[in-house]
Amino acid sequence: MDNILEVKDLELHYFTQKGVVKAVDRLSFHLKKGETLGVVGESGCGKTTMATALLKMPTPPGRIVGGQILLDGDDIMPLSESEIRRRVRWERISMVFQGAMNCLTPVYTIEKQMRETLQQHRQMDKAETAERMRKYLNLVGLSDDILKRYPHELSGGMKQRVVIATGLFLEPKVVICDEPTTALDVVVQAEIINLLKSLKEELGLSFIFITHDLSIEAEVSDRIMVMYAGRAVEIGTNEQIYGPQGSAHPYTQRLLGATPRLHEEVKELSFIPGTPPDLLDPPSGCRFHPRCPVVMERCPHDDVWVREVEPEHMVACWRC
Amino acid sequence: MYWRYAVRRILYAVVMYAIVIFIFSALFNAVAETTQMAQITEQVNAESRGVQQASQMRPEEIQQWRADRRTQLIQQYHLDEPIVSRIFWRTLNTLTFNLGQSTQIRSSAGENDVWLVIKERIPRTLILFMTAVVIDVLIGVWLGLRKARKAGGLMDRTTSIVTMVLYGLPSWWLGMLMIMIFAFTFPIFPSGSMHSTPAPTGALANFVDLLYHMALPVIALVLLRFWGRAYITRNIVLGTLQEDFIMSARARGITERKVLYGHTLRSSAPPIVTMSLLALLASFGGALIFEGIFSWPGMGNLYWVAVQQNDVPVLMGNLALTTGLYIAGLALLDLIYGLLDPRVKVGGKA
Amino acid sequence: MKRKDMSQLRAFWNEFKRVKFGIVGLVLFVVFVLIVLLEPVLMPYRDANDRWRDMTYWLDSPRNAKPVWVNWFTAKDYAVAEVLEPTSVTESQVGSVRMITMEFDYDFHYQRPPSDLQLVTRLTGNASVQMELIRPDGETLSYQRSTSSSGTRELRLSIAQNLQDKVFRLAIPFADADVIAVENPETIDAVATLFAVAGPGMLRDTEPLEGNYVCRLTVALGSSESSVDAAHVIIAGGVAGWMGTDASKRDIWSGLIAGTKWALLIGLLTSFVSVAVGVVYGVVAGYFGGWIDSMMNRVFEVFLSMPLLPILIVMSAVFKPSIWTMIIMMCLFFWVGPVKTVRSMALQIKENTYIEAAKALGASHRRIVFRHLLPQLVPYAFATMALSVPAAIVYEASISLIGLGDATVVTWGQILQDAYASGAVLQGTWWWVVPPGIAIALMGMTFAFIGFAMDTILNPKLRTR
Predict the structure, then answer these.
(1) Do A117 and B252 touch (CB under 8 A)?
(2) Thinking of the domain C2-45+252-462, which architecture would CATH place it in?
(3) Interface pTM (ipTM) of the complex?
(4) C264, C295, C396, C398: best mutation site toward chain B, by most B Cβ within 10 Å?
(5) Would you tell me how many other CB atoms lie within 10 Å of the CB of residue C401?
(6) Which residue in A317, B3, B100, B280 has a CA-CA distance of 20 to 30 Å to B211?
(7) B303 shares contact with chain C (CB less than 8 Å)
(8) Distance CA C441, CA C97 (A)
(9) Phi then psi for A211, rounded to 5 degrees?
């Protein structure tokens, strides 16, 4: 199988006091070996939730209620929590978090946290862990004297690199990057992006790259999935989405259209009217229909899911 | 880094202490001086009798001698100077533990010096209080963690209710109850004081006897207070559990046990320590009353005795020293916090 | 802003309603208020408030009597304290002397005799008194006394104190000879013997003689100015009142009821004033910032360094305050509680744009503080007030316990002080020690429920539903 990760009809619901929120609604996609799949969408469209689902770690009161997650052919859904913890999480699929600000425990040194993770998964003695940590820290461009430091002593960029090193040093197959550059300044952003790219080449990793920044997405991704209101609305190659022909789904088109181009004259910023839907009481049928500029009669009535409209290009729209 | 923080904190405590003692000296100046004048008169009388017997002075000479001696003493105690100056001297004396003579109370060695009277009681109060604090914190934090783990569960809610039910209960009243039940109705424990009479011989027997006498007061103190500790711990831990780094640790496959007792507890330690010790320092006052109920010969008990015998110098000296201990406790709290929180211990960015 | 504040408060109330123990707290609070309002109805001794320390008010009660409901739990019932009025009064004239005969019936159906039986009456002028106590088995004890004085005086005859002699002689025909040889009127329990079955154990191992006892009082009045009135027989029973009596014969239940209003007053007044001051202090410090903030912080820190109870003790010992002065003293130190939190909240709110907007519109500082900042702090202020009430009550009780309280008011702390000073703890007079403490605890619990309920609402991440 060429697909290192296959997700079929994934459903994650939040069971809140006010009702059920379908944060991830019958999501299906695949990730090929060695490629980067970018995931874009507005805030609240379900990107991060999807990431927690892939690690089978939904934030309470969330629960995964259906679907399959095939990691290298194995369905990890029926596995118990302890199995996942021992053999899936971080071993086969890891995550580089957003806002590296707060995902390192403030009271432990970097060394302690990294070593703890290593020893949790591998039978390594102190020397072996030291070597592994040094190797990966160097890989991300850090010297190993940061090991003795506490998280608050590092800059944002350094913390992000530590998080990347930690995400990689068990050499998992799939790495989910959840907005790894969001809180950083532009120069550091560029460094991190280049770093990720080179690591992908060197270590033969497959990335899922989540961001809301379309320009970065264009830089790093081979294929792109656009999410809206918990559903995938378009999945295609970089060329198909960003290319001159333009993408297929009206939402994607407006999303791209809303980004002002540097070389064009911009008289007025275009935007998508309306607001993202309230997932407690989402619109019927196609979730985008209240804001869609080309809405048809059947859109409010019939749910629509991604279908292949050309090779490697899937769109969830009644127009296609 | 830390040493700088520690030194500054200690200096700050000393300054605060000086200011507070100054305020006390001003507040209680009037009554302290009345007592002092009375003591001076007594001293002059006693001395003049001795002089009369020893030498052969004529009555007018005795009178003169008395007047002179009186003036001399008044000058010695700075009582002839303007009021601000007097307050200042009083403050200085208090700060150097020059607390004067008691009017009634004596130390176990029969001494009159207020400082000595109080000094021998300090360790006794500390033993009782510290033991109770340590047990209180251990049980309270353990219970709080369990509550946080199953937050919202039956145990959590029940213990929270118990916390609230016991919230307004004075610890000394519980002490009275326990004495009634466990010292009289079922005579298991002694009803008070620190040692049996006659005191047992041998270090080990003495130690056991001490524990035997400490049992009831410590139980009463702990029984009431650890619920509050548990409640605070639970809330802080719950707050920490929602932090991103906990989710991150779980995602890395760290066992739940390590996440809870390692990452969570360790991160929660600074605020837990602060809140706990603050609450405990606040209960310090109640513990003083407590000593009276149990006739535990510490500083708290001294308040009772001094009030009953209206011994003003002892009362004020005791207040000064109690405040000193209190401020030292606050400083200790901050120092421990500094040790536990690496942001303070190590400080700054690389 | 007003409408927003109102709806915020209403939303707060709606949330509060859902927390169960908060409602329990409110209900208890209402109960306490009702107790205070219904005080005249609830107190059997109406003047307990003013005459708590007046020994003469309590003369007719037994000493250290247990609560009446103790009888529900014991096989051997204690005699219930009673005051008997005459069941019959007859007058007759013998020459120039007026004879008044009063009869009192006492139905003794208990297994434990009372601690005393007293005949009390007021006499004026020349009067001769004869008292007879007729037991159910016919044995009679009689006593005579002549008094003459023109004034009015009280005559109080007590079996336990005045008539042991007579009781002893009553028992002699029946009791065990060995016992008679050893005992004498001072060593026997006269009242127990009086109420004991006539038999060998009459002096020592008494068995109660149940039945109807009659006390007959015959007064011979010598002249027309002489008179007798207010005659009654007191049974100083083993149980009396809802909560028994203390060593000074005071009805503890009345004391508890009387203390309720003081507890509420001390608690609410102290916490309200001190929290109000503390909140305003914190807001001003946080809002104005700069040197004002620094200075206020310094002052605040000095107060923080002072241990409250020892200071209160010494101040009370030196200045001997009344209850009101004590409240003021407590307020002087309680205000520091909310300052830190309120200041940081004020700092946060200050950064909001609508504050900037208000300033741009020309709003004065006072307006911003009172209209925009303070209303947001109201829920927190209430929670803090609720949680401060128990502390204030306990402090007052502690000061009273050590003997420095205001002895002119009846607070639960004062009752406990009397108990402790009289050795109730050592003697096991639990009905004196336990109820006031439970009362303090209950009131503390009430405000804890209310305060913690508010606390849970204000900190949503602590809710676990």
Answers:
(1) yes
(2) Orthogonal Bundle (1.10)
(3) 0.85
(4) C398
(5) 25
(6) B280
(7) yes
(8) 62
(9) -160, 165
